[in-house]
Design a protein that fits this description.
Layout (H helix, E strand, L loop, with lengths): L2 H21 L7 H10 L3 H14 L10 H18 L6 H31 L9 H33 L3 H6 L2 H17 L39 H10 L3 H14 L10 H8 L3 H10 L5 H18 L8 H7 L5 H12 L3 H7 L1
Length: 355
């Protein structure tokens, strides 16, 4: 699940959890610090932007260079809290200048988020590797979350302004129920559409509607194979493997979606077996009887899927096709070109022009 969506949910959950305790008369000693906690909720604004950015790039984990987006608000708010907490009365100009700076900061990130989504999601044609209904789902989800960003920004600034003037705790509590309803709806949306947590690569038709496990990259697998075992060893493996076929495939697909191991151009079937913690013979059996393609072709397909996602995320605006080939696990440009054309039917250059 995307790190920044998790961060947004955690920050908002703590906020409403504390409000619930305060409403029932518990944890009253924290109220003095709660005003300062509300100030730091401004951190959800860059978190929204980074969530949208990583969703488009199909990245999930925290990236160190993203810290730059949090430096200004943290430093600014620490200084602001230090000044407010050590002065009983401050001139109106102080509050005006504080909120003017934060307002510009907020507007900037809202604009960046809008530009990013409008260019890469809302006006983008359906990707050839994403089922149409899921492309529609992600467009609606990002639009919904962007509207929440705008509403949350307005409400947050109103609350911060009231609290800095020592009226917010009473005035803010009157409208907590409204924000709680909005976020309950957001959480419920996630619960009924769990696929939105995983990014573009998950949006493919499941391998088999009746399968126990969700197998999003379905086109290459055969859960119930009709092939006859060619030797005694395979017959013995069949007894061990058949009850666990769907689980093994699901675990492979999960690794494929995370992709990291496929970046290694020397990644082998033995490496995958170690990653899955199963014997190499089990994995060999799986690809022999339950896969429509070889392990080598499977690697190529996963890497080409990844390259398409990066191309559609504007990776080539700042990088070359050669660096793209290495980024997705090919040793050089030539095997990347051959694999891309074999899998998509066109060359990488023609695909780029067609976008």
């Amino acid at each position: 699940m995307n790190f920044y969506l998790t961060l947004i949910f955690v920050l908002m959950s703590i906020r409403f959890l504390l409000n619930g305790f305060f409403s029932f008369g518990y944890l009253g000693f924290l109220k003095e610090y709660y005003i300062n906690y509300n100030k730091f909720l401004i951190l959800i604004i860059p978190s929204y932007y980074l969530y949208f950015k990583n969703l488009i790039a199909n990245q999930k984990l925290f990236i160190k260079k993203d810290l730059v987006h949090f430096v200004f608000p943290i430093v600014f708010l620490v200084i602001n809290i230090a000044i407010v907490s050590t002065n009983d009365e401050l001139p109106a100009f102080f509050y005006f200048s504080t909120f003017f700076v934060l307002f510009l900061y907020n507007i900037s990130y809202c604009f960046l988020a809008y530009y990013l989504l409008n260019k890469n999601v809302w006006t983008q044609k359906d990707s050839p590797i994403i089922n149409g209904k899921y492309a529609s789902l992600i467009k609606k989800w990002t639009l919904f979350l962007f509207i929440i960003l705008l509403l949350n920004s307005i409400k947050l600034f109103m609350t911060l302004f009231l609290e800095d003037n020592r009226h917010g705790f009473v005035a803010g509590e009157r409208f907590q129920w409204l924000g709680a309803i909005v976020w309950i709806l957001t959480f419920f949306k996630v619960l009924i559409s769990p696929e939105i947590l995983y990014g573009y690569a998950i949006f493919n038709t499941p391998i088999k509607e009746s399968a126990t496990f969700n197998l999003p990259l379905d086109t290459d697998w055969i859960v119930e194979s009709n092939k006859d075992q060619k030797n005694l060893q395979d017959s013995k493996l069949k007894e061990k493997m058949d009850p666990n076929i769907a689980r093994y495939i699901s675990e492979i697909e999960k690794i494929a979606l995370e992709f990291e191991v496929f970046k290694d151009s020397k990644f082998s079937m033995n490496d995958l077996a170690i990653k899955l913690n199963i014997p190499n013979s089990h994995l060999n059996y799986l690809y022999k009887y339950h896969s429509k393609i070889s392990f080598s072709d499977y690697k190529k397909k996963i890497r080409i899927r990844r390259s398409i996602l990066l191309i559609e995320s504007n990776y080539l605006k700042t990088n070359t096709i050669e660096s793209l080939a290495k980024e997705v696990g090919f040793a050089s440009y030539n095997p990347f070109f051959t694999s891309f054309k074999s899998i998509t039917g066109i060359s990488p250059q023609k695909y780029i022009v067609s976008l």
